[in-house]
Structure formats: C-alpha cells, structure tokens
Amino acid sequence: MPYEYLEGIVTADEAFRAWGSSLEETFTSAVDALLGIMMKNPETLRTEQRKDIEIEEESLEFLLYSFLKEILFMKDAYRLLLRPNSIHIKQANNKWKLKAELVGEPIDNRIEELLVDVKAITLHRFKLEKTDGLWEAMVVVDV
Fold it and tell me: With 70 as the cut, is the pLDDT of residue 110 above it?
C-alpha cells in the first residue's frame, strides 16, 4: 500500500502521508504506515488473530482518526498488532460507518523487531481529503 514518511514536519513525533484510490485503500495504507513506525517488517505480520470492529463518526476525518486509535487500543489493551483484512466504509443517516476485519498476531519480541511504541494519534495537521482522484491522509503520531 502506498505511503511515505515525512521528515521535518514535527520534531519529537512521527508523521506520514498515506493515499489510495478508494477510502478503504487509504485507510489500509494508513494502518500499514502506522505499523511501519512500530515494527521493522510489517509485511511479515502473521494472521493468527482476528478482530471485527465497527466505528461510526460524523466525518470521514474522524472515522480515520478513530480507526487508527482503535488499532493502537488493540496494541495497548490486548498486545495485538493488527491490520485490515477487509474494510467497508459507507455513509448512512449523515454518518460515516466503518466495518473492518482485522488480522494479526500477539506482540512477541522474539518474532518481530519492534522499533518504537506509538502512544497516540494526534489531531495536529491531521487531514483526509480527495484530490485528483486520490484519497490522501496526513497523520502525526506521538511516540
């Protein structure tokens, strides 16, 4: 999934830009970028555990924000590193709804090479917008 890390945006935190041709692809790219901050080889994440989640928000930006916060919550509360296996996003009754199946594995320092612990998703410079046919997210995380 496409994403890039941004240098010079923040001094003590990490920032990334993630994009895709659909909201679902962009949300997945954002999770991949988040995992890439926390572990050396996120592509080696095994699919031993499955979690289904549903999130509802009034805006797409807050839907992405809440989704990334949920990924961090699973890491902190259940010691699970997860990424989307499937995501479905739709708008109904003036709200945005996300249903996702997350897959991953328990944190095990013997298997993964962990880099840094992301503490939080921040709202600093946070955005999600569609330009030139692509959805693009800008995210700063607290490490």
Answer: yes
